[in-house]
Amino acid sequence: MKRLMTYAAGACLAAGLALPGVAGAQDGETTTIGVSIPAATHGWTGGVNFHAQEAIDSLEETYPNLDFVLATAGDPGKQVSDVEDMMATRDIDALVILPFESDPLTGPVKRVADAGKFVTVVDRGLAQEGIEDLYVAGDNTAFGRVAGEYFKERMPDGGKIVVLRGIPTTIDNERVEAFQAAIEGSGVEIVGMEHGDWNRDKAFEVMQDFLSKNAEIDAVWASDDDMALGAIEAINQSGREADMWVLGGAGMKQMIERVKSGDAMVPADVTYPPAMIATAIRLTAARFVSNAPMEGRFIIDSVLVTPENADQYYYPDSPF
Amino acid sequence: MKRLMTYAAGACLAAGLALPGVAGAQDGETTTIGVSIPAATHGWTGGVNFHAQEAIDSLEETYPNLDFVLATAGDPGKQVSDVEDMMATRDIDALVILPFESDPLTGPVKRVADAGKFVTVVDRGLAQEGIEDLYVAGDNTAFGRVAGEYFKERMPDGGKIVVLRGIPTTIDNERVEAFQAAIEGSGVEIVGMEHGDWNRDKAFEVMQDFLSKNAEIDAVWASDDDMALGAIEAINQSGREADMWVLGGAGMKQMIERVKSGDAMVPADVTYPPAMIATAIRLTAARFVSNAPMEGRFIIDSVLVTPENADQYYYPDSPF
Fold first, then answer.
1. Contact A30/B176 with Cβ under 8 angstroms?
2. Other CB atoms closer than 10 Å to residue B240's CB: what's the count?
3. Alpha helix segments (H runs only) across B184-293
4. Are residues B4 and A303 in contact, defined by beta-carbon separation less than 8 angstroms?
5. Which of B36, B42, B148, B183 is packed most tightly, with the most Cβ within 10 A?
6. B68, B75, B157: which is closest to B120 by C-alpha?
7. Which residues does UniProt call coiled coil (chains A, B) (predicted)?
8. What SS3 state is found at B3?
9. Quick check: A100 pLDDT over 60?
């Protein structure tokens, strides 16, 4: 984390101090927070867009002296321009950014930090350590472990499963290693494991291959909700939907609906919530409306969603 | 972290959803959050008490349907009773606890979690993993590293320093190891290192001993503000106050005042903020007034405080 902070936020903080809960309202001073996220090009980023807007609307209503600038980018170049614009024309006091890619955004975000602004980085780290004040991210190890523990608990007498992996990345390795560690010593046996690249169509093909090669499959760890949908389609087409269940991951609305409804094929899900952008925005806002320290590293847990708690992870208005 | 959450918070959450920013205000449903902390028996816990009360006052004003129960305990037995009372008579929806000691509190807090309440543990972990939903704590490695980097930067030509350590604990080891790693390869030479047990009087004696044995001391890493005060007293009595400076740690008001005023003997401080209780209370509250995920692990950074940013870490109304 950044060692020295010499910025002008003291004034805003002092305002929050003087009248707790009504940040700066008494002196008319406004804190402007820039939020830069990828455009809603696929399911998860669609959720990010929804939850960012919801958090901003809610915070602007609660704290009239907080002002937000939201920009969405379809590519890293656009995101770099967005960040530069926020500095040049909006004089932001803080930046919350979910970087499209690490490398091209590292320099521009460092310049924001060097200018004394509070910087919050979400989900994907920058290429250089110590730039941001606050880092908010999911927990890939927990994501795999929670899934593995669910298989172990649900299959006390063991069983044969297949695993669809994501794009070969550190993230995918962390998830799969934690999953394997969690099922170790149980009777849960992985009879097939292939990369489905977090892609619905690719997962459909991989699952068709698994089905043709394995007469017995008791369950599928699809490790992602998009891949789960592809796998379920392949299972349905094979007519073997009564034989196996599927665990995805992320917390997609369609999947949470199936969990809520008690669908036997989708008995649970594991979160890797796009709503983490709302966590990051709220913590950054709290930095300006309170004395509470918000510099640090917040790793958001992956939670098992079952019919009992699914309501809590169901966002009816979200696209994801 | 807890795997299954089956509690009744869904209603509160849904209320927050329907009217963002005014949590549950429209249906009159109140969320009650219990806060259990050690009594203000010494400086740091004095700060914890101050910041807990400030966060509660601020949040109750902002969110009329949030209700808090604050209890302070002088010993672990009283804290166990406090927690049991909150469950029995106040029907809390969530508990924020800074445990007096890990072992005696683990069972009682687990019963709160098992009853489906949201549990936030602050600073000192419980004796069993996975009970709490949210863990908020300081960063002992950063505390030592930031201090070491400051010595290295401030003494480019090297120098002789003495180090006062805390009570022999994992916390102290983590801090000192990170400090030593940070000054490695620099000309900063540790000519004496002894345990001052985070105690002002003990630190005074240890520093007297250092002074009598070392004709040249250029700086002191007191590693704690209470120990820094003891060390400074010994230095002043020796008449060598012009020869050396002292770096403490925690963010005690007296020390931040000296940093602010440009005191040559106290050029900086490193935070280990008692205000982390406010962070924990605000994140727990956000769990009930928003959709933002708050389950996870938030490690609060230790920040270098210099005359440039000292205002931001100065709480004039706090006892600490």
1. no
2. 14
3. 200-213, 225-238, 253-260, 276-289
4. no
5. B36
6. B68
7. none
8. coil
9. yes
Fold of A140-270: Rossmann fold (3.40.50)
Q: Under an 8 A CB cutoff, do A293 and B300 touch?
A: yes
Pairing of strands B94-97, B31-38: parallel
Residue B2, C-beta contacts closer than 8 angstroms, at least 6 positions apart: B113, B119, B130, B131, B132, B133, B295
Spatial contact of B162 and B197, defined as CB atoms under 8 Å apart: no
**Which DSSP string do the residues of B126-155 spell out, in sequence order?**
PSSTT--SEEEEE-HHHHHHHHHHHHHHH-
Chain A closest-CA separation from residue B139 CA (Å): 9
Nearest to B55 by CA among B286, B306, B279: B279
Q: How far lies A71's CA from each of A49, A101, A318, in Å?
A: 10, 16, 18
Dig out the tokens for A189 from the structure: 């046996």
Q: For chain A, give every domain's residue range.
A: 9-139+273-302, 140-270
The H or E element spanning position A114 is helix A102-114
State the burial class of residue A87 (Cβ atoms within 10 Å of its Cβ: 0-12, 13-18, 19+): middle
How far apart are alpha carbons B95 and B300 in whole angstroms?
A: 20
- pLDDT tens for each residue of B30-71: 999 999 999 987 788 999 999 999 999 999 999 999 999 999
Stated pTM of the model: 0.85
Angle between helices A76-90 and A102-114 (to 10 degrees): 10
Tokens 């700086």, located at residue: B219
What the block records as the tokens of B54 is 């400030």
Longest dimension (CA), chain A: 71
**Closest residue on chain A to B4 (Cα):** A304
How would residue A28 be classed by pLDDT, with cut points 50, 70 and 90?
A: low
Tell me which residue in A58, A271, A298 faces B290 most closely, judged by beta carbons: A58
ipTM: 0.84
In chain A, where do the E strands start and end?
A: 31-38, 66-73, 94-97, 118-122, 134-138, 159-165, 188-195, 219-221, 245-247, 269-270, 296-300, 304-305
Give the nearest partner residue to A62 out of B7, B62, B283, using CB atoms.
B62
Q: Which of B122, B180, B150, B173 is nearest to B270 (CA)?
A: B150
Domain A9-139+273-302 falls under CATH 3.40.190.10: no
∠ CA B300-B304-B309, rounded to 5°: 105
- Alpha-carbon distances of B75 from A115, B45, B198, rounded to whole Å: 46, 13, 20
Amino acid at B298: F
The predicted structure's pLDDT at residue B170: 84
